[in-house]
Amino acid sequence: MNPAPCLRSLAAGLIFAGAALAAPERPPNFVIILADDMGYGDAGCYGSKALKTPHLDRMAERGLRFTDFHSSGNVCSPTRAGLVTGRYQYRSGVDGVVNADPKVPAHHSGLQRSEHTFAESLKAKGYQVGLMGKWHLGYDKKYNPTHHGFDRFRGFVSGNIDYHSHYDRMGVYDWWDGLEQVKEEGYSTHLINRHAVEFIEEHKDKPFCLYVAHEAVHSPWQGPEDPAVRGPGVKKGAKESPKDVALKAMMTAMDQGIGEIISKLEELELAENTLVFFFSDNGPAGGSAGPLRGRKGSNWEGGHRVPAVAFWPGKIKAGQVTDELSISIDLMPTMLELSGASAHPERPLDGVSLVPVLLRGESLGERQLFWNHKAMRDGNWKLMLGGKGAAGEVGLYDLSKDIGEKNNLAKQHPERVETMRKALKAWSEDVMSNVTAQPDVEAVTSGKKDAK
Prior knowledge:
Largest sheet: 10 strands, mixed
Shape: globular
Distance between the termini: 79 Å
Helix content: 25-40%
Strand order of the largest sheet: 7-6-5-4-8-1-9-10-2-11
């Protein structure tokens, strides 16, 4: 018997095995699901009786639920700017809502191209990156997500659209495929989720990051079966559905979509290599803040403490709950650590990686977080300086005993108040020290100058 063929087969097998062992492990995928105006008390897993969220609840049962997670802003645009850059939104100059009215100066602001996003970092690492849904970081095409590292964008650029006709509150049609407006019939929540599932299917064989930015549960109050209230052919004075009725239908549609995304990942055997993270962009406009004080637009906890759930079978232990103080700007450093991607050297991140919490159940240590130059957290302590609801006085609250911020302890702890005020002032000076310039809005709105 000639041993040569056997030896050659053995050698080939050893080479193949060695190559397999040496092959780099595929980095994890990321799916970030962002609800709009969903309050801390608007999910079943956070105690809601009025709204049913079985798929999100199931995600929490199989993953990790946060009890002290925050949006970096208390309204839409700022949180989104912070999320995609991993930095407090004040640094990018997007510290307020990008307004739909072109006569308002804020309409002409947006995320400038000099800002660096998680999409750009991940794309440089070989990821396919998609955004399905709401952008709200600039109306002009120069602000389009495709200029910020997103390979695919399907959705709208304004703060909200009619769920059926896709017209914004100024009567402008707002539904895009990249840089082009497209006509597409359907309920916006269903469309966003359908394109999200298609993106997963299309990119199942390579690393991907998918940002699913839902319109739900932002007004207008429209469920899937309700009529359009904006756009051509709509009768003048058309009314939205009763808020409480519509809110249930809107939440159900979004929750079903979450279930479809999880099911698709499992069907494609991608779930064990995909971190799915769900949260809301700010507190409720129409729903519930649960036990918290304040709502959307407020610096009270109810304005920015939001539901958040992380899901990653085999990596995140099922049924976990964490009280770690966390914020939406933590998601970019988390994805960068897990993927091996890098931040921009001239854009240091303000957030920290959540990997210790997600994968090892470890603490992030004592943290300080800040909102609108008027509020901060220092561990369980909350400082409020004036603003809505504070009646112009300084407020200090021990959230470990007073989650509803009802008992002002400022007079009992003057030294702590002073220490926290100094920390807030130092932070404010830091984030405002080198703000990315926005267009000369006065010149833009007067028509004297192009805003490029």
